[in-house]
Design a protein that fits this description.
This protein is mainly alpha-helical. The protein folds into two domains: 2-179 and 292-321, HUPs (Rossmann fold), CATH 3.40.50.620; 204-285, Tyrosyl-Transfer RNA Synthetase (Orthogonal Bundle). It contains 14 helices and five strands. It has helices at 12-25, 37-40, 50-63, 81-90, 95-99, 102-110, 117-120, 122-131, 145-162, 206-214, 231-243, 246-257, 263-289, 292-321, and strands spanning 2-4, 32-35, 72-75, 137-139, 170-172. Strands 1-2-3 form a three-stranded parallel beta sheet. Helix 11 (231-243) packs across helix 13 (263-289). The longest helix is centred in the last third of the chain and has 30 residues, at 292-321. The radius of gyration is 21 Å and the shape is globular. Adenosine monophosphate is lined by residues 2, 4-5, 13-14, 16-18, 140-141, 143-144, 179-181, 189-192.
């Protein structure tokens, strides 16, 4: 189970942190993937662009390889049971622990005039999304590690108080560790709403991809063989590892180590490989986004599958909590 907020355009971080794993998981597991529209309301109360953004995220999910016939691909707000479980879990979440959450503190800094209770209880809503399907694996990027730990705490508290209903969900990635795709300026992570010039979006056109990559910081190059790489150079190599061939990476590593590297050439190569990666996804997503009838069908089918699983869990939850009066 996992989700992506419809707060803007999907980017390389969403792809490598989350979507790439979704696409592999759909072949092996029973999967629930959603557009997290309720979560987006905690920071984006203006809903003028919400519908477009929901359509965009859905289309980009499918363009990246998710198959709505294999997984439940749905919209969070279409599954009303989420709000019910969120309410119950809120009674098991403590103000102190919520205030200490790193993402909460970040968001308070970014939106000081809208520190609402929904923002504070964001990890509780996320736990509800996951526990609603009694999910075991949650494919997410590194930024979500703490939220997953909180979801396990809420699940354990529930089980302890009311009986064993929820398994412990784990953050999941097919690689050995969770991923963080850095922003192009090296000053943080790629993001839907911040750092837009330093983020590569799956909707960026070829020209923009070239421009963003060519602008990344480099220097005159290493002066001694086998020098350690500065962070901003390490970042370029890291991005290359996501989209370029092993051969290309090996050549640039070698050139770095023997001090013959030309960063202009390296960035040009990265830009070309990035275009080859992004362009087909962009074209596919645009075509899907234009087909509103198809998107409606996907959402309806996804919501039905998700509701079925949610209803089953909530039956168990109400029973365990003693909310069964006849
Ligand atoms: P969000 O964009 O915050 O709705 O996150 C959707 C998914 O993408 C989550 O699983 C995040 O962990 C993941 N994600 C977002 N940004 C990055 C990034 N820069 N690197 C890796 N994963 C990311």
């Amino acid at each position: 189970m996992s989700g992506i907020r419809p707060t803007g355009f999907l980017h390389l971080g969403n792809y490598f942190g989350a979507l790439r794993n979704y696409v592999r998981m759909q072949e092996e597991y029973e999967c629930y993937f959603m557009v997290a529209d309720l979560h987006s309301l905690t920071t984006h109360p203006d809903t003028k662009e919400l519908k477009d953004n929901v359509h965009r995220v859905l289309s980009e999910n499918i363009a990246c390889g998710l198959d709505p016939d294999k997984v439940a691909l749905f919209c969070q707000s279409h599954v009303y049971e989420t709000s019910e479980l969120y309410l119950y879990l809120n009674m098991l979440a403590y103000k102190g622990e919520l205030e200490k959450t790193v993402t909460f503190k970040d968001k308070v800094r970014q939106h000081p005039d809208n520190v609402n209770a929904g923002l504070l209880t964001y990890p509780v809503l996320q736990a509800a999304d996951i526990l609603l399907h009694r999910a075991l694996l949650v494919p997410v990027g590194k930024d979500q590690e703490q939220h997953l730990e909180m979801a396990r705490n809420f699940a354990n508290r529930f089980n302890h108080r009311y009986g064993d209903i929820f398994p412990e969900p784990q953050a999941f990635n097919y690689g050995s560790e969770l991923i963080k795709v850095p922003s192009l300026d090296g000053g943080g992570k790629m993001s839907k709403s911040e750092n837009q010039n330093a983020t590569l979006y799956l909707s960026d056109d070829d020209d923009l991809i070239h421009k963003k990559i060519m602008k990344t910081k480099t220097d005159a190059g290493p002066t001694a063989p086998n020098s350690p790489k500065p962070d901003y150079i390490e970042n370029i190599f890291l991005l290359m590892k996501l989209v370029s061939s092993e051969e290309v990476i090996k050549n640039f590593e070698q050139a770095y180590n023997d001090c013959t590297i030309r960063y202009g050439d390296m960035k040009k190569q990265l830009a070309e490989d990035m275009v080859s990666f992004i362009a087909p996804i962009r074209a596919k997503a645009e075509a899907i986004r234009a087909d509103k009838t198809y998107l409606k069908e996907v959402m309806e089918k996804g919501a039905e599958k998700a509701r079925q699983s949610a209803r089953a869990t909530m039956g168990k939850v109400r029973e365990a909590m003693g909310l069964n009066y006849y």
